Amino acid sequence: MIDEKRLRPDLRGAGSMDADFAIVHLERHMLEVEYNEWSVFGTDIPDYVLTHDGVPIIDVFRRKK
């Protein structure tokens, strides 16, 4: 994505719950990941929700400091 200039070059994937942000694709098989993020990030309310025709697709969480 960085090569395609779709992502800022100073951003990188952490591959763990140590990140400042977490992105969850809202699919049934991702529920466990989302529950884990709620626990680690201290909230179940996303900072941003990407939708299509009113249907949520992606949740973005920011770590609470």
What are the salient characteristics of this protein?
single chain; 65 residues; alpha+beta; 3-stranded antiparallel β-sheet; 17% helix; 28% strand; globular
Q: Give the spatial strand order of the biggest sheet.
A: 1-3-2
The number of helical elements comes to: 1
Spatial extent as radius of gyration: 13 Å
Main β-sheet: number of strands, strand sense, barrel status? Answer: 3 strands, antiparallel
Secondary structure category: alpha+beta
Cα(first) to Cα(last) distance is 28 Å
The number of E-state strands comes to 3
Shape: globular
The share of residues in helices is: 10-25%
The residue ranges in which pLDDT falls below 50 over 5 or more consecutive positions are: none
Strand percentage, roughly? 25-35%
Q: What features would you describe in this structure?
A:
The structure is a single chain. This protein is α+β, with helices and mostly antiparallel strands. It starts with 20 loop residues before the first strand and ends with a strand. A three-stranded antiparallel β-sheet has the order 1-3-2, with helices on one face. The protein is built from one helix and three strands; from the N terminus they run βαββ. The longest helix is centred in the middle third of the chain and has 11 residues.
Architecture blueprint of SSEs:
Blueprint: E1 21-25, H1 31-41, E2 48-52, E3 55-62
Antiparallel strand pairs: 1-3, 2-3
A few lines on this structure:
This protein is an alpha+beta fold and 65 residues long. The chain has one helix spanning 31-41, and strands at 21-25, 48-52, 55-62. It is built from 1 helix and 3 strands.
